[in-house]
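Postdoc handover notes: sequence design on the structure in folder B. Input tokens:
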């Protein structure tokens, strides 16, 4: 696999960037399909998604750089090269949610309903992003003897870590999981009490990511020697999601 899709002289367009862009576009399309539920106009949605996209990229990159500062301390110009890979989902997720809350409050849009319609789009967009990770060779898995183990080309980061050993395609595991989550959430938007869709998303994705991380082979730092940074965040978000789901389910409100 070649992470570079197109080479135009010194300019390289990578599959990671293409898939990330497709993820954002697809997410916007999906959210737009459900905008009536949140009573948000097309113009407002366009403005909000523009802010969310920039906030998400900035937050995801910032957390990645912080977690891998030794890679950037002597080469700060590489910090902005997101086309080379290196985004931490939870950093972008938390930053984007913060921006969304501020915007919705200022425009008097239901924050809860907006999060509900965002969740399925986020899940589908993330699935495409993980395909980009697979092609790019980042976020790779541990060695496996399973028949679908993937061997990365010589010279790539996975091959430098594990040579020619077949690795778990953890990026594809998460892609399939995200697509299932998307299907569930998209179907139930408007069918459940407000707030429940986003709560379910937190629970399902947090669980998916927590389990998938056990098969990741690119981590060097662990909390208490047991959990990766993403698993540590998931250990907080999963019970929060369960608590929110119980709370919203008990509310006597409209859908």
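Designed sequence:
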């Amino acid at each position: 696999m070649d992470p570079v899709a197109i080479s135009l002289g010194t300019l390289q367009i990578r599959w990671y960037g293409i898939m990330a862009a497709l993820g954002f576009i697809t997410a916007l399309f999906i959210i737009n399909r459900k905008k009536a539920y949140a009573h948000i106009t097309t113009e407002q949605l366009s403005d909000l998604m523009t802010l969310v996209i920039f906030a998400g990229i900035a937050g995801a990159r910032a957390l990645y750089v912080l977690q891998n500062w030794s890679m950037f301390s002597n080469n700060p110009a590489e910090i902005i090269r997101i086309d080379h890979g290196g985004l931490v989902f939870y950093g972008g997720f938390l930053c984007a949610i913060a921006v969304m809350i501020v915007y919705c409050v200022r425009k008097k849009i239901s924050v809860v309903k907006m999060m509900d319609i965002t969740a399925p789009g986020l899940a589908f967009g993330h699935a495409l992003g993980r395909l980009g990770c697979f092609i790019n060779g980042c976020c790779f898995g541990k060695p496996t003897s399973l028949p679908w183990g993937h061997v990365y080309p010589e010279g790539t980061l996975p091959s430098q870590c594990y040579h020619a050993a077949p690795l778990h395609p953890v990026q594809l595991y998460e892609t399939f999981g995200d697509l299932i989550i998307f299907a569930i959430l998209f179907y139930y938007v408007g069918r459940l009490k407000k707030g429940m869709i986003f709560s379910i998303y937190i629970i399902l994705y947090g669980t998916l990511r927590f389990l998938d991380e056990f098969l990741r082979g690119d981590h060097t730092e662990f909390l208490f020697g047991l959990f990766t940074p993403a698993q540590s965040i998931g250990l907080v978000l999963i019970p929060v999601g369960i608590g929110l789901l119980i709370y919203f389910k008990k509310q006597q409100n409209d859908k």
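Context for whoever picks this up: Residues 112 and 195 are 5 Å apart (CA to CA). Don't rerun without checking with the PI first.
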